[in-house]
Amino acid sequence: MDAVYPGDTASVHDILDLASHYRAAAILLGERSPRGKPLSHTPRRLLALHSIELYLNAFLLAKGHDPKAIRGLQHKIDERARRAIDASLILRKRTTEHLETLTSNREYLVTRYGPEMTATLSQVNRVMATLDELSQKVPKGVRGAAPPSAKA
Fold first, then answer.
1. pTM, entire model
2. Which CATH class name applies to 12-141?
3. Which of 18, 55, 76, 133 is the most exposed place for a label (fewest CB within 10 A)?
């Protein structure tokens, strides 16, 4: 018998809740980060990127995508976004372009492992703006998904 992979049985609403907690943490950390020190924003960026990924995951789950297939995307935010847009998520053009840039710039990997490469990353306020748009639009787009008590 295979062990259940973490998140396989999480509901859409559980994932949305988790995404909102990571977003709240990113906002709070931004209020406390010292100005003028680029690396000080790295933890905030990581929280925001993870939240972005979770919002897109929740949307895809709500639209019937398989959790294993979503997991197989690894940290390809652009592919998650493309699939979400194909499944009816409407985002501003600038946000869509930024989601593509996050993957092409390998921002998740640079944020986690490459402090010497932080100059190549998009502005943290752009990351937060992308996150803000997803946090507003994804919950509206998943209304009607199974409530937390109706886990698969």
1. 0.89
2. mainly alpha
3. 76
